[in-house]
Predict the structure.
Amino acid sequence: MTYKSVIVPKRGSSEVLKIIENDLRSPSAGEVRVKILATSVCQDDVAARIGNRPFLPKLPFVPGYAILGLVDAVGEGVTEVSVGERVAALTRTDGYAEYIFLRQERLVHVPTTLDPAEAVTLVLNYVVAYQVLHRSARVKAGDKVLIIGASGGCGTAFLQLGQLANLKMYGLASRSKHGALTALGAIPIDYHTQDFVDVIRHAEPAGLDFVFNGMGEEYLECGTAVLRRGGTLVHYGGPQSFARFLLLLAKFLLFALLPNGKVVKGYGVWYLYGTNRADIHVFKSDLLALFKLLEEGKIKPIVMKEFPILEAAKANELLESGTVIGNIVLVAPEL
């Protein structure tokens, strides 16, 4: 038997993505074979394909940072999951495929009541937002925050979780996306036509408690400018080259030395790719908490469009268009 996957044979546009066939082998000891039901499409997939990240997977590789699927077969010694169970995992690569092979300790059980296309968005985007809000920043009700990059999969996760935490939120996005931000409880600011520092200083003269930056390091200076004394900026966006990674580290050091009473933190920077190297028990605990919120209807991921897994090139092209609000998901044909 064989299965298909989508590979990146060389760096470039979405046109380089290629469908190949692979032998469907049996899982080895301690390994689980998972039939993929859904995988999210994220900016890190695009960056790895193009090559604008400091630490890249070797060519050729299968993109796909997070998956949700059914346990199809288990290897010798596997005791944590059984055939037929629904599981999820943060993978960094290999998600654009019909099957994936993973160690059992990396898998998280998924309630069968959840829609796979919605639930898979929690594995990366919502875990990042949840951990930044509640582990890095430790927000409390009434805090005033700014989300830089508020309309994408991670940004809308911040907004939904921020609503639950009773935060006063400002969000940067292009004007065409302001309706979505308003619906999620944020005060939108158009970063193309408005100086958000002036807007926020006028609206919040005492300054903000937190700024969450999912875009480039160029936003660090203006982000800290809108913080109150004692406020914190948490940067979670990935640098676009090794040089910019070093620049980001240098800026962190500079801000640490400045006696301005403000704090700059880097979620994921010191571990290169955040959640993928974080303590697995913390990751599992947080993801299970998010699954519970989804089950209870307290969060509702925005899935702008679903594509069949093997149409990953079209999904990547849409994500790169800059028009996406929320998430894009690849799904198995039977969904």
Notes: The mean pLDDT is 93.
